[in-house]
Amino acid sequence: MNRxxxxxxxxxxxxxxxxxxxxxxxxxxxxxxxxxAASxxxxxxAGGSTAELACPAGSLKGEGSSAQKTxxxxxxxSYQDQCGNKGTIExxxxxxxxxxxxxxxxxxxxxxxxxxxxxxxxxxxxIETDAAKKRCSGxxxxxxxxxxxxxxxxxxxxxxxxxxxxPEILSNIFAGKIxxxxxxxxxxxxxxxxxxxxxxxVFYRSGESGTTExxxxxxxxxxxxxxxxxxxxxWPMKAGEGKDGSSGVAEAVSSTKGAISYMEWSYxxxxxxxxxxxxxxxxxxxxTPETVGKAVExxxxxxxxxxxxxxxxxxxxxxxxxxxxxxxxxxxxxxGLDAGKTALLKDYxxxxxxDEGQGQLEDAGYxxxxxxxxxKVQEAIKAIA
Length: 385
Fold this sequence. Notes:
Number of helices: 14
Structural class: alpha/beta
Radius of gyration: 20 Å
Shape: globular
């Protein structure tokens, strides 16, 4: 484990000041009997304390964001190990849109989404917040930010390991207006690179995706004159080929010379893909936990009470701030879920929001929550009834 990197990331992200955040630091030094020595060692290594877990029996099913799949795999394994596998937790990474749909249909117990529930009608007339409230027996559903996963623009280009792209260039590539890697705009942004004349092959997410929504919002905010399409969970461009999920686009880029796509950082890392630096106007910025932390500093809480919907600042131009970021929410019923499932869901989310849970995410390709937001999430979890 890269301890220096982890401590630096935690220090930077811990300084973030998000509007409407407050409360006392949560988490105690207690741990469950099962695996107590191992969990204490893990906590000490991460620089935080273990969560106090009740470890109830039962089973949970979650579904949604593929961007947080790796995080969920790590967190639920650690939680179940500490609790002696008393509770069974499943997470199916079908995409944010399907996760919300199946949560509202009562097919799963919680949803993971890279965008918060919408309070305006979708194309089919559905209002996600209203549907979620009905699913929760008339109670509000809350958006709880849990996993910070920056978006990587990953590419596969022979002889080129480093590449700088701007939001204007990305918009024109995805729109099919820039079709070769030695286009003058790309050459201008990369004066020291030897760029081949290979055809650019674009891949995008075929289904509804919170990652897609964050990318379109980023490009719209950072390059409004170049990105003229609508923002949303469904990819709006016609150029390229759609693939299923983050794993689908990552595998496609990995196996296709000249390819480019957007995906959550952990998928680019696990597929050993090169990641472009992004220049929003303040200079080329590499994707790191530190640069992500600097960008998240501009986020504000837009929700009310324990609904922690965030407003991200995609058009940030500060040096060393990586602008293409997303936050995955765990969407839960504030009330109205079966009592047994509520107990297990609260216990599991308590672990994921703890110092120990958040502290292990960097090695999985994510960044931990800012301390102030972590505390707010912990308070919301306690309030679930």
